[in-house]
Amino acid sequence: MTPRRLRCRVARFWFATCLSLPVPAWAHAFGERYDLPVPLGYFLVGAALAVALSFVVAALFMRAEPGKLRGEGLVVSLGPVLPALRIVCQVLSVALLCAVVVAGLFGTRNPEMNLAPVFVWIVWWVGLSFLVACTGNIWSALDPWRAIYEWGNAAARRAGFARGLFLGFNYPASLGAWPAVFLLLLFVWIEVLYPHSVMPYRLASMVLGWSAVTLLGMMCFGSAAWRRNADVFSLYFSAIGRFAAVGAGPDARSIVLRLPGSGLIASPVKSFAMVAFVITMLATVLFDGLLGTQALILVRRAAIGWLPQLANDRGYFLGTASLLFVWLSFLGAYLLSSFATARLVPDRPAGAVARLFALTLVPIAIAYNVAHYFTYLVVHGQLIIPLISDPLGRGWDLFGTIRFYPDIGIVSARATWHLAIVSIVVGHIISIWLAHRLALREYRTPGEAVMASVPLTVLMVVFTVISLLVMAEPLVQFGTPGTPS
User: Fold this and answer.
1) 349-392 pLDDT, tens digit each
2) Which of 78, 263, 357, 444 is most buried, by the most CB atoms less than 10 A from its CB?
3) Domain end marker among 227, 258, 289
4) What Cα–Cα distance (Å) separates residue 83 from each residue in 87, 88, 131, 364, 399?
């Protein structure tokens, strides 16, 4: 055996070892646990006080006139550059979609050696979420299904069809964004609970199935109506993109530069379904972290003891019930805070309050993603480098990267814990600041704005403590410092 082939085999063995864990376990896969210098309760109390004090500071010092708190920005025209970049992004995204499908269908069945699982679950779902939060909603340009539909629609018009591919159906107004809510729950169920979500052939089949559904939806109801209501990924990346300092301009050749987060308060959501969608963004990330906690393990054991038949359901029933319970608990808690706001300041009904403040929760969803998945992205995202050279697992070395060795020690448990604290606390503080700023604009007096923000602030303090508890269990010692775990 030549040294080159030996190095390739060693690299593949290391690559396979890194990928052999199920996808949910990648999020906090550490061989160490951080020994806290002080009891965990000190961290929780400190974080909760920091979030609460930020509201006090905002209430005391942010009392500007409502008319001066608009979410406007500076419009910058990029001329022909932006349309050209959009075309490049469309071609690239369609090519990557084809590569994922080809790798899944015709590459090795071993998920450790196939491009599809790593690209879909790490690079696209996690990496793109972070990128959109920082740079704006670039998914509108990268969306491969939108590009395919637009290309086909243009070709149909040139062929003489006046309406192109559009079949002329009206999207049912009663459905609203509810299809996207349940599709996001289904997507997270596949990601976290479905044991075969990393199998290349099944993953490629699911990608093809979603491609057929979304293209058919665009043909029936039009591209804009489908993406505005039922396209889960368009709604997801659009909500995250509203946090960024860059937004879409008034035309296809311009962008808007604005304060980070101001896009979230420019206009409220228009339906209760979008409220549920935003809550789903929060709850599903926290549910992913809850899966490995002792609390959920004990609940599962108790349920199996009460109903032994559940022991053979491979976690489907209990996992699904837990996911729905976490989502409904978050949704119920938010609606309860909205009801309390409506009672404290009887300016508008609870439903209107819920729609008004829903998007101010998006920074918390982004913070949860950073806390739970940043290390996952940095450590396991390195796996894409050798796969660039061998996407199908056929022994290729197209770009000379097959011998790359991922550095799994690049981020420690200590660094991850402190990153989680900072991101969660900062995310909640930003949400409080945005909610108070929005209340100043929407309510008649600064006093009413403060009262309207109190229930939501209490909810955010509770969310802060819960999210840090969930993050702590797989990372830190819960006993006396120095005691073995």
Assistant:
1) 999 999 999 999 999 999 999 988 998 899 888 889 999 999 99
2) 357
3) 258
4) 6, 9, 20, 33, 30
